[in-house]
Amino acid sequence: MAARIERLVTSGTFALDGGTWEVDNNVWLVGDDHEVVVIDAAHDADAIAEAVGDRRLTAIVCTHAHNDHVNAAPALAERTGATIWLHPDDLPLWKLTHPDRDPDAHLVDGQVIEAAGADLTVIHTPGHAPGAVCLHDPGLATVFTGDTLFQGGPGATGRSYSHFPTIIDSIRDRLLTLPPETKVLTGHGDPTTIGAEASHLEEWIARGH
After folding, report:
1. Between 20 and 30 A from 65 (CA), which of 15, 24, 86, 178?
2. Which of 163, 122, 123, 120 is nearest to 138 (CA)?
3. Which pTM does this prediction carry?
4. How far apart, in whole angstroms, are the C-alpha atoms of residue 178 and residue 161?
5. pLDDT digits over 106-131, tens only?
């Protein structure tokens, strides 16, 4: 049976640089009836565990370490035995939320994480955060972009550890080179496609965000 993608929306707060904002996050599950990978364990370990059900959770992959994407990861890992994966460049951000619990394994660019027939290739896309990654599966014609690329533009770069020219480089060189029909499944909000966003790159550069 081919892998399928499920979406769970959880709600909570994002906190950085002394500010706190209410946010809804997309939690993505990729797998089949037997095993599954979670992309971004946000806010609610109970709700995510319920979505996993009796399947084996093999990995919790963090697209980046902002608290709203990783705050439920340790609790979910403890319940399921799953491995938490994070790019090492995001360890300073991770430590802000989880000072006493390290991720279990480090993501590297080009690595493939397998889940029930899906092959998620790690693409390092710094800018929104230093260790931000996207996960591309050509078989599913899908890229999970976390907070790097949204419908309508790049992720925010106005706060600590972020940099607008870097996120533009990441999007232009690593994401917009994917096939235009590739579905873009984001960390917040609605999906889009690479083709729908590619033509707007110069607008984003001109507006500066």
Report:
1. 178
2. 120
3. 0.98
4. 26
5. 999 999 999 888 999 999 999 999 99
